[in-house]
Write a structure and sequence with these properties.
The protein has 466 residues and is mainly alpha-helical. It contains 20 helices and no strands. It starts with a helix and ends with a helix. The relative contact order is 0.15. One of its GO terms (cellular component) is plasma membrane.
């Protein structure tokens, strides 16, 4: 039996060497093109090499094979000696030993056949349902993919596992640590800077300008302006503006008295004497200055009341008067259509981007400080509030379930396609290197269990026969 086993191993080693030589001669492009292996498949798709750990495992498998085969030869030798002793009249014990060793040989051979049939054809014979791994590799890959999809990528399993992890609570405790909040803030700032750097100003400006223009065109602005003006007048918010305008008008009249009087004289009829025009101009200027001064100093001046009534009526017209609303809409279209306004809208993005980039780069900027404070607050809340934890867990579970249910076929096909791209012979040797040592224990156990079972059967048979 040892000679047969050795012969089989030598045949397999010879086949592997011949296959390696054929690969080197038949596919010379693998030597010049590192992206193509000897089997014609990309290196990322095929298992084409053994790591030092794999080689160590293969040596362990060979040692266990020698041990299992040696045990088989030992029970075979015991069987021969026991039968010789039994035929020589050594006593009843020889029959027990012969029965145990005979059953041990049967168990060892049966398990040898079963283990060998997983990886290759025993003794090279074309026995059906042998060499299962190399011949059924693709089917095993499909079955493995289906198994993973049904048992690991199901909605129930994903939800149960994530719920057991408690992501909301752990994330809250993690974010509540200042150093972790600083790290997340820095990463968010880097991402923001990267996104703002990648975006082209011209593209963003065009999008912003179009969005603002389209939004303004789609919505009538007169009623909104009317409501806002009505509230401002009712709250007296316009009075400061009136105060500012009147004060500036008074100061301007004081500084430009000669210009005002010259303008009034210039509008007088040509037939009036010059001194009369001068007197009229001075009188009009003094009255105008007095009016503006009284309006500035008297909050209850009648002109102020008239202005309040005007603004109130105008706010009402903006909301209800058709002609006023139509004129405002025409003015809006005209203003938005001007190139200066479009340039102003487009340039707003440049200012915003520059401000955001500067804030993201400055560790002490208000933006980063607020983000950090928000993260710390969120982490503290998440670590103690069950409702918030449940909400975060629900979001994570929903996202994970969506990915699993939507892309389960793609995920499982990755397993199937990867296994299908492996070289059958190399895959067989790789798998055998990883699990072959344990399988050799099956042979050893089969020898021991077979011997005990044979001994038990022999004892029972002797007892019933007696």
């Amino acid at each position: 039996m040892y000679e047969v086993t050795g012969r089989v191993e030598r045949m397999e080693r010879t086949k592997r060497e011949e296959a390696g030589a054929e690969g080197q001669h038949a596919r010379p492009e693998a030597a010049v093109n590192p992206t193509v292996t000897a089997s014609g498949t990309p290196p990322g798709r095929a298992m084409t090499s053994f790591s030092p750990a794999d080689e160590e495992k293969r040596r362990g498998v060979r040692r266990m094979k020698i041990t299992a085969t040696g045990l088989l030869l030992f029970v075979a030798l015991v069987y021969v000696l026991a039968k010789w002793a039994e035929n020589s009249g050594a006593g009843v014990w020889a029959g027990y030993v012969a029965a145990a060793s005979e059953a041990g040989m049967v168990g060892a051979l049966a398990d040898w056949f079963a283990v060998t049939a997983l990886f290759r054809r025993p003794l090279g014979l074309p026995i059906p349902h042998t060499a299962i791994i190399p011949t059924k590799k693709d089917q095993l890959g499909v079955s493995l993919g289906e198994f993973v999809g049904e048992n690991f990528l199901s909605q129930e399993v994903v939800r149960q596992r994530l719920r057991a992890v408690g992501i909301g609570s752990r994330l809250g405790s993690w974010l509540a640590e200042p150093e972790h909040a600083d790290r997340v803030t820095a990463e968010l700032s880097a991402a923001l800077r990267g996104a703002l750097t990648v975006l082209r100003d011209s593209d963003v400006q065009a999008v912003v300008g179009e969005a603002i223009t389209r939004r303004a065109d789609a919505q009538e602005i007169a009623p909104g302006i009317g409501k806002m003006l009505e509230k401002i007048v009712a709250d007296g918010g316009h009075k400061r503006v009136v105060d500012l305008i009147v004060a500036r008008a008074h100061d301007w009249l004081v500084l430009h008295d000669e210009q005002v009087m010259d303008a009034i004289e210039g509008g007088a009829p040509g037939w009036t004497p010059r001194f009369v025009d001068r007197k009229v101009g001075e009188r009009v200027y003094k009255e105008l200055l007095r009016f503006v001064t009284e309006m500035r100093d008297a909050p209850s001046h009648p002109a102020r009341g008239a202005l309040d009534r005007f603004l109130t009526d105008f706010a009402s017209d903006l909301q209800s008067d058709t002609d006023t609303r139509a004129r405002v809409e025409r003015l809006k279209v005209e203003v938005l259509g001007r190139g200066e306004v479009q340039d102003l809208i487009a340039s707003a993005w440049t200012a915003v981007r520059s401000m955001m980039v500067s804030a993201a780069e400055d560790e002490r900027s208000e933006l980063r400080l607020r983000v950090r404070a928000s993260l710390l607050s969120l982490g503290a809340r998440m670590s103690v509030e069950p409702k918030l934890q449940a909400k975060v867990d629900s979001w994570v579970e929903g996202a994970a379930v969506y990915v699993v249910t939507t892309y389960r076929t793609e995920i499982t096909s990755l397993i199937t396609d990867t296994v299908a791209g492996w070289d059958a012979e190399h895959t067989t040797r790789k798998i055998e290197a990883h699990i072959g040592r344990d399988l050799q224990f099956i042979r050893i156990n089969g020898t021991v269990v077979g011997s005990l079972a044979g001994l038990l059967i022999y004892v029972v048979s002797r007892g019933l026969g007696a």
